[in-house]
Design a protein that fits this description.
Layout: E1 3-8, E2 15-18, E3 30-35, E4 38-50, H1 53-59, E5 68-69, H2 72-98, E6 104-110, E7 117-122, H3 130-140, E8 144-148, H4 151-158, H5 169-172, H6 182-187, H7 194-197, H8 212-221, E9 227-231, E10 234-242, E11 247-252, E12 257-261, E13 266-271
Length: about 280
């Protein structure tokens, strides 16, 4: 069975999978690989492991080989590039002010083989930075790319703490941004206050997606609120849901409320009006 190893090239980037070949690698090792027609230095984050051909094809196709384990010379180039990136931050801010461009620099990255220097920035509007690119290229003697990114990408690069107190999901483990809608918050009965369901990027929090399918699947099969049901405790009315427990919140004539599993109730055809604003799932 083939061996694959997971390699991270940028802290805010995706994990790429490679064939280590005969190179003995462990987590934390620096390696040189080909990525998108360039040569990059990355860090092993998943040690080599055997996978069957089907699993290997599902990870990435085709799987390319690690070129080599990073040498002392390679590491010295990495340090030189980092120094150049720090200089790039200062030069970018200087030129942006000089040209009167409203741009916020988020990150600078020099490809290991020095094929290009990439500046990631945010701006409220489209920016004509052609003259700035020429001056940066003249100063650094390298191909320059300026990439305008969105607020979610900025949060992924910069990082921070979410409302839960944990590191941002996009910085920690998410590799792609999925579409998040206000309906996801509504179906999970979360407060529709933007301050409570938005991340530090100002967009709806990515974690609204995590449990949504559980809520949606249960709500698709659960009786509507206001439907009368027979339970072992007597007749009651559905006033809410506990979707993750696959249970209904049932209110009885004495105003007691109980959480009862869906498969333990018998649904009737009777319905009574209920106050939707005072009930939840």
């Amino acid at each position: 069975m083939p061996l694959i190893t997971g390699i991270l090239f940028r802290k805010s980037g995706n994990i790429y999978y490679y064939d280590p070949g005969d190179i003995i690698l462990k987590t934390g090792d620096k390696v040189i690989c080909r990525v998108d027609n360039t040569t990059e230095i990355g860090e092993v984050v998943a040690p080599p492991a055997e996978v069957n051909n089907g699993e290997a094809a599902a990870v990435i196709e085709p799987i390319t080989r690690v070129i080599r384990k990073a040498t002392e010379y390679d590491l010295s180039i990495l340090e030189l590039n980092k120094t150049k990136e720090e200089e790039g931050v200062k030069k970018f801010d200087e030129l942006a002010k000089e040209h009167g461009l409203l741009m916020k620099l988020v990150d600078v990255h020099i490809v290991f083989d020095k094929s290009r220097m990439i500046f990631y920035f945010t701006a409220e509007k489209r920016v004509d930075f052609r003259e700035m690119v020429k001056e940066l290229a003249s100063h650094f003697k390298i191909r320059i790319e300026l990439r305008q990114i969105g607020v979610r990408d900025e949060a992924k690069i910069v990082g921070g703490l979410g409302p839960c107190g944990m590191n941002l999901c996009c910085k920690s483990f998410l590799t792609d941004f999925e579409s998040i809608s206000i309906k996801m918050a509504k179906d999970q009965n979360l407060p529709l206050n933007p301050l409570k369901i938005s991340g530090i990027c100002g967009r709806l929090m990515c974690c609204l997606k995590y449990e949504y399918d559980c809520y949606k699947d249960f709500l698709d099969i659960a009786p509507e609120r206001g439907i009368k049901v027979k339970t072992k405790f007597g007749m009651g009315v559905i006033i809410g849901y506990e979707c993750l427990k696959k249970s209904l919140i049932v209110e009885f004539e004495n105003e007691n409320k109980l959480s009862i599993p869906l498969d333990e109730v018998e649904v009737t055809n009777e319905r009574v009006p209920i106050d939707e604003d005072n009930n939840s799932h």
